[in-house]
Structures are given as structure tokens and as C-alpha cells.
Amino acid sequence: MRANYHSHTVRCGHARGTEREYIESALAAGMEELGFSDHAPFRLPGLYPGIRMAPEELGEYVSVLRSLRREYAGRIQIHIGLEAEYYPAGFPGLLDDARREGVEYLILGQHFPGNEAGEVYFADAFDEPRRLDRYVGQSIEAMQSGVFSYFAHPDLAHFTGDEALYRDAARRLCRCASDCALPLEINLLGLRLGRNYPDERFWRVAGEEGCAAVLGCDAHDPEGLRVPEAERAAMAMAERCSLRVLDRVSLRPLVAEGGGL
Questions:
Q1: What is the largest CA-CA distance in the chain?
Q2: 238 has which bridge partners?
Q3: pLDDT tens-digit readout, 181-240
Q4: Which domains does the chain have, with CATH numbers?
Q5: How does DSSP classify residue 55?
Q6: Residues 233, 178, 110, 69: what is their CA dihedral angle, to the nearest 10 degrees?
């Protein structure tokens, strides 16, 4: 991998290692670009604890990464992003905070429906068609917003019901991604940990719909940026599914050129 845009920090409450350790690990892996995209700090009531940074940490997050970007200039390109759900009640405020602090890009990671509070995690196994429809519908709204650079683990929804219904839902999502020119991430952390994603059922549909794919480390520790076995497994699946895998992603900026990035 020449680039990874999906890396976390200790601020999310379930990752470890310093930003410098992540950068050094990326350099050791031969990467030329490293994006940090820690879990976004929504200002919403009732959010589950331990899975995202607090709003008051966002400024320090950006400041630390800006300093390291200057220090490592010429050796590796550092990008400052966030992984964010599309929560309608909190999304405008999140965009305001991110733009004010100079966050460079967003990747979509739709872990919960609605606005999260009181909802069920999409990666927990379920067979209710309505929940699958909520995942696809909310993800489509997110993609059509035009602010995300790519869709992380788009196959996260762990649907165990009717296969034909799953294929139809995956096709709706993939067609929207193709229409929006939004790459879909093959998640290497899911491969390493044996999660329900990557789900080859989904990626066969993505290949049929001509979707672009990108590998994402989803690194929650520095070692997560050096995963050659997972890379090989992901590329083998991509070949089986006739996927076009991008080396790099053209990030969609959240602020205008010259706006403090």
C-alpha cells in the first residue's frame, strides 16, 4: 500500500499508540501518504461512550497532526481527517466544528442508524429487512451529501436474512456509490480480526456495478499499518470480484484552498 487514509488515535478510547508511532510504522511499510481519521466528535446526547473523541479534543488533534506534518514533510504526506457517521441531528454541527478547526477530509463509517442513541450496532447479526433498509437508506443519504471522500467498511451491516434481499440492498448502495464516484473500502482490520466484513457477497455486487475500491487499514495501533497478509487476502478477493482497486484517493476537502490546512 502506498497510502492509507483510515487510522485512529488514543482519543477515540479504543486505540493505542502515539501519532508519531503510527507515522514511523507507515514509513517502515513504505507508505507515501498517511491519513488520520479518528472517530468524529458529535455533539449529541446519549451517545455510546468509549468510541469517539470528545468535541473539546478536536482542536488538539488537528494541532498535533499539523506539527507532525511539518516535521515529516518530504518523507511522508500527512492528512488530517475524521471517520464520521451520517447522523442527521448532529451532522451540520460536526461539519461546522471540522471546518473551523481545519479538518481536511471525512470518511463515512455508518456504525449505527438514526442518531445512535438507543440504537443497535449494525455489525451485530440481524435478519430484519427493515434494519437493512435503514442501513442502506442512511448510507445513501450520506453519500449524496457530497462531503465524504470514501465509504469505510460499506459491508459492515451483518444481515443474516434472505440472500436475494441482501443482494438487492447491496446493489442499491453500490449503484449510489458509483453514481457519486465514491470509492468503497475493503477493510483490513475486519480481515485481520475475522469480523463479518469484508463480506464477499457485497463485493461481488460492487464488482458487477463497477465500483472503485480502496484498501483501508483501519489502524487502531501502529502495527495495524503493516499488515501484508491482510493486503494480499484483500487483493485476492478484489481479483475474484473483478474490482478496480485504487492506489490513492482524491480527498474531497472540507475547507477552501488556503483555509488553514
A1: 52
A2: none
A3: 999 999 999 999 999 999 999 999 999 999 999 999 999 999 999 999 999 999 999 999
A4: 3-246 (3.20.20.140)
A5: G
A6: 70
